[in-house]
Amino acid sequence: TATAASTGDPRSRAAPASELLPPRSDDKDAMRTGSRRWLLAVSIAVQLLLGLLTALFEPRKLQPAAAQRRVHMRVHAKTVPVDHIEVKLNLHHVVINRLSNRFTCVSLDFWPAEKCDYNDCAWVNASVLTANLSDPVLVTTMRALSPLTLRVGGSLADLLSYEVPGGQNARCVPFELDPSSRIGFRGGCLPWRKWLALYDFCDAVGCEIIFTASALHGRTPATCPAGTLCRQLNATTRPACCTDWSGRWDPSNLRALLEASAAANRRPAGIAFGNELAGSHGIVAHLPATEYASDLLLLGDLVWRIWPERPPALLAPDSNFDAEWFAEFLAALFPNASLATSSSEAQPSLESAEPPQNSEPRSPISLVSHHMYPLGAAAAPELLYKGLDARKLEWSSDRLKLVARLVANYTGGAASACVSEAGGAYNSGQRFFSDSFVSGFWYNDLLGGIGKHGHAMGCRQSLIGGRYALVDLRSRQPSPDFYSTLLWRRLMSPKVLRSVKGPLGMRSAANMSEVDEPAAPQLRCYVHCARAGTAGVNMWGGVVVLLINLASTARHSVHVMMDGISSTSPRLDFLLTAPRGDMRSPSIALNGEVLTAFQNGTLPALPHVQANGSVIMLPPLSFGFFVFPEAAARPCFTELQMLKAKHKVAASADASMKHKHAATSDAAAYWTSWKGGKGKSSTKGPNRRRSHRSVPPS
């Protein structure tokens, strides 16, 4: 104590005796009372101050997003709907787009088992080069989706060489890990026997192949300083040498493969030129637009020489969308196309997606292809919230509109847009999201947007491999998104109808000028003609309405308005929900029944629920397909139905004429008999309000 006091520090001075003694009981009570009053006063003042500051400075525009995030945080809980939103959905007898007949499309990628993202290695035995194409699960699921398109390609396609019979190929070596490469691998070779096996597989299951050809053969990658790990660097720290390539494209190896294929009577339905090489958005390389377009024209000449009667469709640039690069690329391909303004609803004819005949003008490209991963990187922890965010889904719609409009403007209708790769979240998808029920919200919405906004098709990444696979070879079960794809294949025809969503009091305009209103922003709606090939779906101009409810605590009552749909119209409901309310479930429930495939690959039945009426009740966090098989939608009549309709109209007209003729003859006979009986006429004639058996007026 003496030492402390000698320092002169007031905090260490000796305390007086009165301070060292314990306080008396009455002193304690007084201290407690004063302390409580002081704390209460401070608490009230703080609360008032916080309330005032919140009212004055909190940005109102952030409140809905915050509220939405709080709602999504409760997505796993079993919530009771507290809101009931009524919506009117006007359907019009107008086709706004027609998809390709094989608009169902899945990808088979080249990634080897060593492909790992975020310490998750999900590509074991899932590569084009190693997959067991005779696996009964794979065969059964593909047959169920047929006829469909199988896209064979991906990021490693530009590194591949092709083994051909009788060629001077070196030993066909597999891919090898290479962290100095931008893509993380080097080498790779497609064996001839595997190339033929892909065609045998498609013959067995009913698919056509779109093949991604290498656009980098002949080009030389730049040399980076020793120790540069391009794969591990991000965009801000990655040097230009990681994506710089010099030289020109060499088509010789591809020519040998295609000529050998033609000799073996094998022809791909389409050829995509490279994968994600467009400018600064490229992955392996950043190619200039005009240079890429020049090489694509060489590919077109090559394909036409090998298959002059029916050449494969050409797809390009198969990259992430870059408006400036795409515009420059299309301007180089279509220098004489008219840059006419077009709306998002008036898109080019999709007939250009079919192989052209010799009598038709030759187009340098059939499909302008782009990739979409609207949810960003698979590492994002908030992926579930993004997948349920109406604003994020609307961003995808805006992107589709922009691409379709640009393609229409620059090609003059000679080519169509398509999404050749879509997996939700890039880098293999995310476990417990991409392979779960919640993935169905973004996926079904994107498929609906592809049809609604002028695209020819959309291809899912991937069939097998990654967390976004439609078929999980480890569990030997299809993913929830597979069943969505299957329902699209069975129910939805290529014809897309115009539909307008709005509040219940919205009026239909005679000229169809009404547009979607901001009512029920968490309800997404798409309408197609019902597919004629599925029994019971299109009985008389049938339509299918796809509804997606992103709200976690609100159910929607959707009043479907269309001539031919009434309160007694038959309806087939296919409602999809999360089993036990678990949004991250690897399963999906159809009308309350969990869908489970057998281990031999046999798929479960997909029964509907029979309903009636034009009002659809959609529960929170659900989506579904609602079929009106007798909607009498004029664009949805099959040829047979149109023939029957013409016969009905003719029979009705004939019956009407007979009725008029009989009535006229009856009236004439009555008038004659009346005149004959009275011997006189009347200027008034018979009273039409009375029966002809009544006494004529005097």
UniProtKB/TrEMBL annotation:
Pfam families: Glyco_hydro_79n. Gene3D superfamilies: Glycosidases. Residues 686-698 have a biased composition (Basic residues). The keyword Amino-acid biosynthesis does not apply. Keywords: Membrane, Transmembrane, Transmembrane helix. GO terms for molecular function: beta-glucuronidase activity. GO terms for cellular component: membrane. Residues 344-361 have a biased composition (Polar residues). Residues 673-685 have a biased composition (Low complexity). PANTHER family: HEPARANASE-LIKE PROTEIN 3, HEPARANASE-RELATED. This is Beta-glucuronidase C-terminal domain-containing protein.
